[in-house]
């Protein structure tokens, strides 16, 4: 079921596909047939991957592998703008093969090209990735039809994602103090579930026990390994997330300070103001005025 405000689908000759949609209400279930990256530019999209629930916010994006059972729901007073990029099988295989091998191997062309399986989760939507995707959407909204240029954008989208994956996964694996690679990989997958749960439920009264249960770790194991991988505790990650999302609300909405405090999960306005000033070296109201000016 969908009630659309605006929607367009751009399918290229190499099977790469882009879908942009702005809607207040949507509900669909499907088996994802292509490697897909999903973005939300405003509002929230509630998703489920293989019975695992999470929410995509404007500061995150989600990765879904081909063949994954996927469902999505949007239920909002204001239109939610979503944007997804799906990659044709040959395009993603060739990119992964090119990115992962030396020039000598590429010239020899002896290795079979495989589709990469990635950790399906939320990743930070910022930096070059954000710039590239927003610029692509802007061009498509203006009627861009040049497939060569669009594919260049999609190439850079993958390139930026691989850099983010390296930072968020590969480098984090090296920080975990386990000898066996398989153990490190399993622990990081569970920590990813913990981060995903915090990001999706940041405005609720969640506990360490809730987070540990989602990650299938004991509380103490969660605390030790989370700090190893991300260099901050789960609580510090939660507070940082709440402050950044409060900052965005101050910048883009007319909600009062007290309303924002409640929306991001803080209970006390005075502690929120103190934490905000300590983190950003400016009070929330001064920050809002500076953005307006």
UniProtKB/TrEMBL annotation:
Source taxon at top rank: Bacteria
Question: Keywords for this entry?
Answer: DNA-binding, Transcription, Transcription regulation
The record's InterPro entries line, in alphabetical order, gives: Homeodomain-like_sf (IPR009057), HTH_AraC (IPR018060)
The record's annotation in PROSITE patterns points to: HTH_ARAC_FAMILY_2 (PS01124)
Q: Where is the HTH araC/xylS-type domain?
A: 192-290
The reply to whether DNA-binding figures as a keyword in the UniProt entry is yes
Keyword field contains 4Fe-4S: no
Recall the GO molecular function terms of this protein's record: DNA-binding transcription factor activity; sequence-specific DNA binding
Q: This chain belongs to which protein, by name? A: HTH araC/xylS-type domain-containing protein
